[in-house]
Write a structure and sequence with these properties.
The complex is a heterodimer.
Chain A (H helix, E strand, L loop, with lengths): L14 H11 L10 H7 L3 E5 L1 H4 L13 E6 L4 E5 L4 H16 L1 H7 L9 H20 L3 H6 L6 H7 L7 H11 L5 E7 L14 E8 L1 H6 L29 E9 L3 E11 L4 E8 L6
Parallel strand pairs in A: 1-3
Antiparallel strand pairs in A: 2-3, 4-5, 4-8, 6-7, 7-8
Helix pairs in contact in A: 1-6, 4-5, 4-6, 8-9
Chain B lengths: L3 H9 L4 H8 L3 H8 L7 H11 L4 H4 L10 H12 L8 E5 L7 H21 L1
């Protein structure tokens, strides 16, 4: 009888396959929220936390230093370090982002290759995106969050209710919700245009469009992103949910999006804030008023 | 998990059955029957629903009962990286708020700092 052995060709392994296997092998699959300590223990990784601004003081003197280092992974020491100033949800996401670099074969080969060649910009952006996707896959346990959300109405309230079970931030929950939703929907995310001077009235804060995410079905019928050259000040529609005192409030609103010179779409939307950013969930075309 | 009829009812939103049935070109009684149906219809009816509501067929079928699975190849790969020592140059993968990267010299310095901090932590324990 012919006998063959299973070959491990890492180029054939998909990201989803690695993540699912990691969740299953660590006994974290199906248990919420995902226990990052178990993942680190299984991979024989340690985690440290220190203040990058204080403990890594040479960063301030290094040329072209990118703003705000959140986390770093050293393969030699099998250690992930997170910045101690991060809140628990951001810290968790950063740890799992670094786990992504650790388990993706191509990242191990390219980032930690024994050369002084810096990754080109495109590869770097792609690998950062892939590490973020691993972090999201681990937090939301594959399709589990997406499938669970389908049992509830298409609404911000669904994300506000389900995301805490996964110990996910509202922002990462909202991204995942829309990216994977089978129904047409989109989210427009607004952030503060500029840091307000100390002592200024919070009501005067301006917002601008930060990014848009649309579900696959929405992109086919409408748009994948929107833009606006002006900021959104007090009195604008999105200011209805501005400020930390509005966290958890969901407000209905209408949105008009111009498409070319003549056509425009009108949508029913919902707004909410996480205290820093404002999220506008685009639900469906508005019903036109009866003539 | 919601049944087929409930998922279909959700797609109609606040529109009336009459309005949606007219839009789809089916009798209102058919739509009403579908909205009370447990199982997913087949063939042309399903195709018309997905086309009218612009949703993929999977919208009506997806459930969260499928468990995650491991594969032998991925298990072998994870086993190898769990135990394999790494002896390459000291460097780090970084996660920054802006998504930008550091130059190689700075990354080497960060790796050295991590090494030093880890040693300090181990000494304390």
């Amino acid at each position: 009888m012919q006998k063959l052995n299973v070959s491990t060709n890492t180029t054939e392994l998909s990201r989803e396959e690695i993540v699912e296997t990691l969740l299953v092998e660590t006994g974290t699959a199906g248990r919420l929220p995902t226990n990052e300590g178990k993942l680190l223990g299984y991979l024989h990784l340690e985690q440290l936390s220190f203040d990058f601004a204080q403990d890594v003081d040479f960063l301030a003197r290094a040329p072209n230093v990118p703003a705000k280092l959140r986390a770093a992974l050293s393969l030699n020491d099998r250690t992930i370090v997170t910045h101690s100033g991060l809140d628990s949800k951001r810290s968790r996401f950063s740890i799992l982002h670094e786990v992504g670099h650790f388990v993706l074969p191509e990242h191990r080969e390219r980032i930690f290759a024994d050369t002084d060649e810096t990754l080109n910009w495109r590869t770097r952006v792609q690998q950062e995106r892939e590490a973020n996707e691993v972090a999201a896959e681990l937090i939301f346990q594959g399709n589990r969050f997406t499938d669970e959300a389908l049992d509830y109405p298409l609404s911000c309230k669904t994300v506000l209710n389900i995301a805490p079970k996964y110990a996910a931030s509202y922002e990462s929950g909202m991204r995942r919700y829309v990216e994977r939703h089978v129904l047409p929907c989109a989210v427009i995310v607004y952030n503060k245009a500029l840091a307000s001077p100390e002592g200024s009235d919070p009501a005067d804060e301006k917002y601008r469009i930060h990014y848009t995410i649309a579900s696959p079905a929405f992109r086919k019928s409408y748009f994948s992103a929107v833009e606006c050259s002006e900021g959104f000040s007090s009195g604008s529609e999105i200011h209805k949910v501005h400020g930390p005192w509005n966290i958890g409030n969901v407000v209905e609103s209408e949105l008009v999006v111009a498409h070319g010179n003549k056509e425009q779409w009108r949508f029913d939307t919902e707004l909410f804030t996480n205290g820093y950013k404002i999220f506008q969930l685009v639900l469906r075309p508005s019903k036109l008023p009866s003539p | 998990m919601e049944n087929f009829g409930e998922r279909l009812r959700r797609l109609r939103g606040d529109r009336s059955q009459k309005e949606v049935a007219q839009g789809m070109g089916i009798p209102q009684t058919t739509l009403s029957t579908l909205e009370n149906q447990q199982s997913v219809p087949r063939g042309e009816v399903l195709a018309r629903l997905t086309e009218y509501f612009k949703v993929p067929i999977t919208y009506f079928y997806r459930s969260h009962t499928e468990p995650l699975r491991s594969t032998e190849s991925a298990k072998q790969f994870l086993e190898s990286i769990r135990t394999e020592p790494f002896s390459g140059k000291p460097t780090v993968a970084t996660h920054t708020e802006s998504g930008e990267d550091f130059d190689e010299d700075t990354k080497r310095l960060i790796a050295e700092k991590i090494h030093q901090k880890r040693a300090e932590t181990q000494r304390k324990h």
